[in-house]
Write a structure and sequence with these properties.
mainly alpha; two-stranded antiparallel ribbon
């Protein structure tokens, strides 16, 4: 079983992404996160599906794009 704090950190990276060295926001895949945290892909997919990470990520990206668009105006 995955510790709650580790799972929350991984979910946060998946949903919110991170800003890389070039200042670009990157959204890692479940596969990339499984490799980075040395977990099986199936375990991470199960958590992701059960907690609807993709839906959360889609909402975040929509809100982020709306903020960027508003700032440009």
């Amino acid at each position: 079983m995955l510790a709650d704090e580790v799972k929350l950190k991984i979910r946060d990276e998946f949903v919110h992404g991170y800003v890389n060295e070039e200042g670009v926001r990157v959204f890692p895949t479940v596969e990339a996160l499984a490799k980075r945290y040395d977990l099986s892909k199936s375990t991470l997919y199960n958590y992701s599906s059960a907690e609807s990470w993709q839906g959360q990520k889609n909402r975040f990206q929509t809100e982020l794009q709306q903020r960027v668009d508003a700032e440009r105006m």
